[in-house]
Specification:
Layout lengths: L25 E2 L2 H11 L2 H7 L3 H15 L2 E2 L2 H14 L1 H6 L7 E2 L4 E2 L1 H15 L6
């Protein structure tokens, strides 16, 4: 059993055997995305109304992270990416993104920049929701 934990010192060579390195996500159409969101988002209201803001904000995070396991239509994927940019601004700044959606120190949303991005996303969505 001791030999199991010994790391080999030779460098990795070649490709990983198989057709894919990561699992292939199942496609999901726009109607299923809407159905899932419509089923989960109402749970947010009770927590918000009873002063549990952090829990209420966790629900959209759950929705986006759950649907991330599926191959959602491109406009939805772009919307989810925007969600993560808003909720994790420090992470995206560290990746080199330079969006001004939120001030990282006070987490104040830049409404003008957000509206501009949402308008561009809306234009990109028109006609792309038939998948």
């Amino acid at each position: 059993m001791k030999n199991f934990w010994i790391v080999q010192k030779k460098p990795f060579q070649g490709n990983v055997p198989g057709n894919a390195t990561f699992g292939i996500t199942s496609p999901v159409n726009h109607d299923k995305v809407i159905s899932f969101i419509d089923g989960e988002l109402p749970h947010m209201s009770w927590y918000r109304e009873h002063g549990h803001t952090k829990v209420a904000l966790a629900i959209p995070g759950y929705i986006v992270r759950y649907l991330f396991n599926y191959a959602v239509p491109m406009p939805v994927k772009e919307l989810f990416h925007l969600y993560f940019q808003l909720m994790e601004p420090v992470y995206f700044e560290n990746l080199g993104f330079r969006y001004n959606f939120a001030e990282t120190e006070r987490f104040k949303i830049n409404k003008k920049a957000l509206k501009k991005n949402l308008t561009a996303l809306k234009i990109s969505m028109s006609g792309n929701l038939t998948d």
